[in-house]
Design a protein that fits this description.
Layout lengths: L1 H5 L3 H9 L4 H30 L2 H6 L7 H10 L4 H25 L6
Helix pairs in contact: 2-3, 3-6, 5-6
Length: 112
């Protein structure tokens, strides 16, 4: 996301200021459409990494904190309920793949 904000053309921001656009309008109509692909790519990257990280929340967080990675891990390792664990893993994969499909359609991965 930082790269998307760094690549913003300053000419467009200066043009918006020259036309007396308020900052909120500049953000909504100029900045947000230009950084949306970077925001999609960054959110997919963060989401996919947090789904694979199930040890850190159990060590740092409270024992009652339930995260999807921990649920999937417990279904495979503790409960031996492989069909339910596979269904949860499939849901996570569908979320990541649909996010990637949206990012590809928006052109988020071409500008990285």
């Amino acid at each position: 996301m930082v790269t998307a904000f760094e690549r913003l053309p300053t000419d467009l921001l200066e043009a918006s200021a020259d036309l007396n656009a308020p900052p909120l309008t500049t953000f909504r109509r100029v900045i947000l459409p230009l950084v949306t692909p970077g925001v999609f790519a960054g959110s997919i990257n963060v989401f996919s990494l947090t789904m694979g990280d199930f040890i850190t929340p159990s060590l740092v967080g409270s024992p009652s904190g339930i995260m999807l990675g921990n649920v999937i891990s417990s279904q495979f390792g503790v409960a031996y309920n492989w069909p339910l664990g596979a269904a949860f893993a499939l849901v996570v994969m569908l979320i990541v793949f649909s996010g990637l499909a949206i990012a590809l359609r928006q052109g988020a991965l071409e500008s990285l």
